[in-house]
User: Which sequence fits this backbone?
């Protein structure tokens, strides 16, 4: 890396890559455990989209870093504290309702975020965003429908969704906090100003949650730290599961 | 069998690139490379073959664009391209995966859409039509089908389930 801006860009792209990989890996845990076959397939496809997105970001991060590390090195040979994904992405799946609420909150954010990232002065990032936004819009259609169906479904489905919203709500503020690297990259119009998305996201999510006969909790708490490498207990377990083969047999290929 | 002959501007652009290429024989060789998940549709017809360049001697370079960012087939496709060119006596030094312009269903050729239909897959269109009985009375079963690029539908007239290649 030649200069300070490269360092900022590397860390920024790595954060986006970690977000995508951790959510993709988490979602892939549904494979063969979906509530029914079609949904199992949908969840697996969703996971694939995120892992594909992670690959594009990691490849770019490796290229910026320019130290001969590959996308696989970045994914498999960094420890928990070196991962800088948002905490909401690493939380366990718990039940289907929880996974769907998380996905809905993230999909809504992704559509707004990627729309801005398409305008990035960094051509590579704007190209990735142009590819990813189409997928995220499709994901949002699905998660939006599920929120409506389960929110207005049975007493139990609505209760499970409400519990998930209450549990997840405190993890959402982290999506709207720019890191110092991101702030630095705003000057060159490379990164997205996370704070600027909050109002629109809140309005959109609030309207849909209410239309689904669910409540937005009165927020009195928030958890942050993922971007600094301060994670919940859950990330270590996820990484152990994901990294063990490469760590046991470095360089192994299919 | 309904006939689809609508040429999109996106496909017309691709056809022009191919027609103006200085190595038409390389494009022709790649007409034998099929998408591993849609074995009736070539990578040209599906729109993932972006460009072919002849380099020094027998070397050449191919540019492809994946349908979806997580498409697991792209590795196999790259291998198939290299093998097909090698069999014809060429050495493909690189299969470059390009992101821009992003792949979309408008890049699919009319022949590609016809091939899908013949395989019982409804091609991307404004209206989803049953590939078996051409009924427009269909219902979505799942937004995702056997691969990321397909959704699962059911025909309410002939009651058959079918894959729909998502309009993307």
Assistant:
């Amino acid at each position: 890396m030649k200069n300070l801006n490269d360092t900022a860009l590397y860390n920024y792209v790595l954060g986006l890559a970690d977000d995508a990989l951790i959510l993709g890996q988490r979602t892939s845990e549904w494979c063969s455990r979906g509530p029914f076959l079609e949904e199992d397939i949908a969840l697996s496809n969703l996971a694939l989209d995120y892992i594909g997105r992670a690959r594009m970001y990691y490849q770019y991060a490796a290229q910026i870093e320019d130290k001969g590390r590959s996308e696989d090195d970045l994914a498999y040979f960094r420890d928990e504290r070196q991962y800088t994904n948002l905490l909401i992405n690493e939380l366990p799946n718990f039940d289907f309702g929880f996974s769907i609420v998380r996905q809905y909150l993230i999909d809504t954010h992704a559509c707004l975020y990627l729309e801005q990232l398409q305008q990035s002065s960094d051509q590579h990032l704007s190209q990735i965003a142009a590819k990813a936004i189409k997928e995220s819009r499709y994901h949002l259609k699905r998660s939006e429908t599920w929120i409506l169906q389960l929110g207005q479904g049975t007493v139990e489905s609505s209760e499970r969704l409400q519990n998930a919203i209450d549990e997840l709500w405190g993890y959402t503020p982290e999506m709207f906090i720019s890191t110092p690297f991101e702030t630095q990259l705003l000057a060159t119009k490379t990164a997205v100003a996370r704070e600027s998305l909050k109002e629109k996201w809140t309005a959109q999510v609030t309207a849909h949650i209410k239309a689904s006969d669910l409540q937005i909790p009165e927020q009195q708490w928030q958890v942050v730290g993922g971007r600094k490498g301060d994670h919940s207990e859950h990330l270590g377990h996820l990484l152990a599961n994901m990294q063990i083969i490469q760590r046991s047999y470095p360089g192994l290929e299919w | 069998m309904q006939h689809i002959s609508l040429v999109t501007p996106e496909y017309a652009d691709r056809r022009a690139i191919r027609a103006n290429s200085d190595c038409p024989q390389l494009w022709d060789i790649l007409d034998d490379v099929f998408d591993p998940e849609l074995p009736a549709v070539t990578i040209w017809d599906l729109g993932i073959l972006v460009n072919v360049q002849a380099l020094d001697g027998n070397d050449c370079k191919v540019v492809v664009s994946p349908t979806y960012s997580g498409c697991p087939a792209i590795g196999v496709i790259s291998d198939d391209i290299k093998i097909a060119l090698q069999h014809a006596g060429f050495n493909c030094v690189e299969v470059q995966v390009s992101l821009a312009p992003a792949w979309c269903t408008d890049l699919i050729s009319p022949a590609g859409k016809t091939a899908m239909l013949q395989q019982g897959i409804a091609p991307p269109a404004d209206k989803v039509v049953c590939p078996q009985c051409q009924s427009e009375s269909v219902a979505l079963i799942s937004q995702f089908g056997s691969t990321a690029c397909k959704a699962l539908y059911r025909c309410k007239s002939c009651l058959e389930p079918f894959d729909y290649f998502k309009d993307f």
The two ends of chain A are 31 Å apart (CA to CA). The interface with chain B takes residues 24, 38-39, 41-42, 45-53, 55-56, 127-128, 130-132, 134-135, 138, 141-142 of chain A (CB under 8 Å).
